[in-house]
Every structure is written in C-alpha cells, then in structure tokens.
Design brief:
Order of helices and strands: HEEEEEEEEEEHHHHHHEE
Radius of gyration: 63 Å
Helix content: 25-40%
Distance between the termini: 185 Å
Mean pLDDT: 77
Number of strands: 12
Number of helices: 7
Strand content: 15-25%
Structural class: alpha+beta
CATH class of one domain: Mainly Beta
Largest sheet: 4 strands, antiparallel
Length: 368
C-alpha cells in the first residue's frame, strides 16, 4: 500500500503543476484607502463645517468623484471643491472638500461615503467600492442669555462738549473765510490792473494848478506857428472845460456850451465871472463850428481870458490863525485877480480871525 502511494505521488504532483499552469493566477487586490475628517465635531446651529474626503490609490487606478449628491446625513452641502490630485512614489492622493451645515440640533453622524474605483486601463471592469468611516457631529442650539429676560433700552449717553476742538474748528473756519475774502479782493485788484497791495496814493492836485500848467504848455507849443488854429482853440477849450469839471463838478467834457453855462449858473458864480465864461465859449465856438478864422489878437485875448477865468475862480485857502501865545493877527491871502478887503480883523478873546478873500466864503469857494 505504501509502495502504491509512493508511485502515485509523483503523478499527482505533475498533474497539479499542469493544472496550475492552465489556470490564470488571480490579480492582487490594489491598495486603495479612503479617509474622512472634519475641522470640528461640535458646532452651533447654522455653523459651517469643513468635511474632507481623502482617497489614496495607485496611479493606474481611476477613482470616481463622489460629487455633491453624496449622502451626508442631516447636513446640507453649501460648497463643494475638488483639489488637484498629488502624486508621490507612485501613489496618487485625491481630495474632495465639502462645506456643510444644518439647522437642526442634536447628535448627527455623517454616514460612510462610498468611493468607487477601477483599473484605469480596463473601462469594462466592474468598479469596486471602498467607504470612508462615519463621523459623529454634535449640533447645539443658541444658548439664551443667562441674564434673564430682555432688558429695557439704556438711556442715551450725553456726549461731553470738547471746547478745545470747538475753538480750533471755529478758528479754522474763520481762517479759511478770511483767506477766501483776501483772495477775492486780490483777484479783483489784479483784474482791475491795480497793485495787489494797497499803495498810499498821492493827494489829488488842485484843478487850477493842472489847468495853469496845461495853459503854459499850450502857449509854449508850436500849434499857432504851424497854422493849426483849430487844434489850438479846441485844446484851449478842453483845458477850461476840464478845469470846470474839477472845480465845480460839472461834467463839462460831455456837455454842450449851453449845458455847461447852465451848470455854472447853478454853481452860484458872480455875474461878471459867469459873463466872462459865456464870452469865452462863444468866441471859441465861432472858430470850432462857424469856421471863423481868428486873428492873432483874438487868439491872444482867448488865452488871456482862460488864464483870467482860472485865476479868478481858483480855490484859495485862508492861512491858519496865529499862535495863541503871541496873539498875532493874520489876514487871509486874496485870490489872484481879486482885491483884498481893507477891513481889519476883529479881535475875539486875544485870537485873530482871518477874513476870507472877496468873492469867496471861508472854505475858499466863490460866494454866489
């Protein structure tokens, strides 16, 4: 019997070898793992949780994406993100991130999430499934205030008045306002062609000085020598008219002769002075408008009359009274072309009063 067994053993081993050679060997199970994690396991109602699924597999294995339709128990998916796979030492790590929350309180379990995979080269192969472990989550409600019931509204707080800040703001506002006003004034002066800074102006010269200087320049000119009689008479008339405007404030340069004489009559001139003005303008108008050619004697008379009008009507101020300690009496200087009053000044308490020039009042203006 033992001899038979010894003879059959080689035959059995040979048959086993042949059978093993005819049957293909089973493929080894690929190393695929799935893990899950949350950033916190205890939350308050409505809080967000980061739920992460990590799958590690060889690079020749294709893993199906879980997707947003995965069963996460009582949690709602608020956001879903697939991280770019990373490969290291032939192992690929795929990561899927969920942002979930719930508005229910209690203890919840995120159920195991199935992950399907298959060989990447064999699309017809039946997928295999691996599941992540479940995770326990506790959801708590918002705790009421331990202070008890809702308290009343607190009274409004009184804001203390900061006087220093108020004064600084008012001062700043005044400074800005002053700067604006100064800017407007300087702009208007610049636009008008004036100096930006005020300059002390010279006092206006008396009109009779201006008129006498103009008459001197006219008589010294060569208009008569060149035969320009019309220009000479026109300039002579304008000198007298400008003098009337400065002396009596009559706009004589823009008036006719009749209007000028009417204005002089309202100024209260003496009759002989008023008649002299009329004779002067009548003689000049004959040359200007009637084309009358005056003789040299007539021109000399017109110039003489112009000098006489200015000298007889110019303002002459009376000199100041003598010093009180000397008690000296002083008389007023007469106007050129007029006679001085022969009467002496009356004494009043030791002080002498100056008599005005004939035909003028104490201010120097001609009396009517």
């Amino acid at each position: 019997m033992s001899g038979l067994r010894a003879r059959l053993l080689p035959v059995f081993l040979a048959g086993s070898a042949v059978f093993a050679g005819l049957c293909p060997a089973a493929d080894p199970e690929p190393l695929v793992t799935a893990a899950s994690a949350v950033d916190r396991s205890r939350i308050t109602i409505g809080d967000l949780i980061r739920y992460t699924v990590t799958v590690s597999h060889p690079k020749d294995i294709a893993v199906a994406t879980p997707g947003t339709g995965a069963n996460l128990g009582g949690f709602e998916v608020r956001a879903y993100d697939v991280v770019e796979p990373k490969e290291k030492d032939g192992v690929v790590v795929s990561e899927f991130r969920y942002t979930i929350s719930t508005f229910l309180t209690g203890e919840f379990v995120i159920p195991p999430l199935p992950v399907a995979y298959r060989p990447a080269a064999d699309t017809a192969a039946a997928p295999r499934v691996i599941a992540t472990p479940g995770i326990r989550i506790v959801v708590e409600s918002m705790k009421p205030s331990e202070a008890g019931d809702i308290r009343d509204v607190k009274p409004p707080l009184d804001i203390p008045l900061d006087w220093k800040r108020l004064v600084l703001r008012v001062a700043a506002a005044l400074a800005v306002l002053a700067a604006l006003i100064a800017g407007v004034i300087l702009f208007r002066r610049w636009k008008a062609g004036k100096s930006l800074l005020p300059v002390r102006a010279e006092p206006p010269r008396p009109p009779h000085e201006i008129a006498l200087e103009a008459l001197d320049r006219l008589t010294a000119s060569d208009l008569r020598a060149r035969g320009e009689t019309m220009a000479f008479v026109v300039e002579l008339t304008e000198i007298v008219r400008r003098y009337i405007g400065g002396r009596y404030f009559v706009v004589a340069m823009e008036m006719t002769t009749t209007e000028v004489l009417d204005g002089l009559s309202r100024a209260g001139l003496d009759g002989d002075v008023f008649g002299l003005f009329g004779s002067f303008f009548h003689a000049c108008d004959l040359v200007k408008f009637a084309r009358h050619v005056p003789s040299d004697a007539e021109l000399d008379d017109a110039v003489k009359t112009a000098y006489e009008l200015v000298n007889r009507t110019k303002i002459v101020l009376a000199p100041a009274a003598a010093e009180a300690e000397t008690g000296t009496e002083m008389s007023a200087a007469p106007a050129p072309g007029s006679a001085a009053d022969d009467g002496s000044a009356a004494e009043n308490g030791g002080a002498a009063d100056a008599e005005p020039a004939p035909g003028t009042n104490r201010s120097g203006r001609l009396e009517s």
